[in-house]
Amino acid sequence: MKRTSIAVAFFLAFLCIGPVAWPRSAVGAGSTDMFLLSFGKGKVEVKLYSDYFCGACRNLEPNVEYLITDLIQRNVITITFVDTPLHKYSPLYARYFLYILNGKKEIGHALKARRALFEGAQQNISDSGKLGSFLTTKGFKLKPFDAAPVFSVLQGYLRIDNIRATPTAVVLRDGKREFHQGVPNITRMLEGLK
Description:
The chain is α+β, with helices and mostly antiparallel strands. It has one domain (4-192): 3-Layer(aba) Sandwich (Glutaredoxin), CATH 3.40.30. The chain is built from seven helices and five strands, in the order αββαβααααββα. The chain has helices at residues 4-21, 55-73, 90-103, 107-122, 128-137, 148-161, 183-192, and strands spanning 38-39, 44-50, 77-83, 168-173, 176-181. α2 (55-73) runs antiparallel to α4. The radius of gyration is 16 Å and the shape is globular. Residues 1-32 have low confidence and may be disordered.
């Protein structure tokens, strides 16, 4: 659990380093839209803030996948995954998540990608090439693009919601904003939407 200022600093560092890691020729046309991170068409908006190196996040997501999938299929929620850079290598993982979604945007695929990224973080994979290879062996196709505009929007989410710890879910419904922090609270909130 870290302060927002650390998260913002990592995002800013990531935005400076990011263009060096992938040449402009790898940029995909029209790939910078936030549609990549949002799933569903429900009236209840959920922003799920997590970090791949956060043990509680690693425990939460696999346990609520069935709830998320069900709520999306029934058009109850629109969920946005906001990768929160609290660890030194979190921006790298967040970038690869975007590359995976840029290749195939589907909730089942996204959840599978998140599981793989949590596994990679648990193995402490810190090298970009090794992470790319790890994800490729898991069957993911990476479609690089200039992710800076997406990260800029995510940075704004972190500021607006004043995120200080992960996992945190911010729920917007009926004009009200609710904050749910920790595995049990987020799980109860999702169960309550059924």
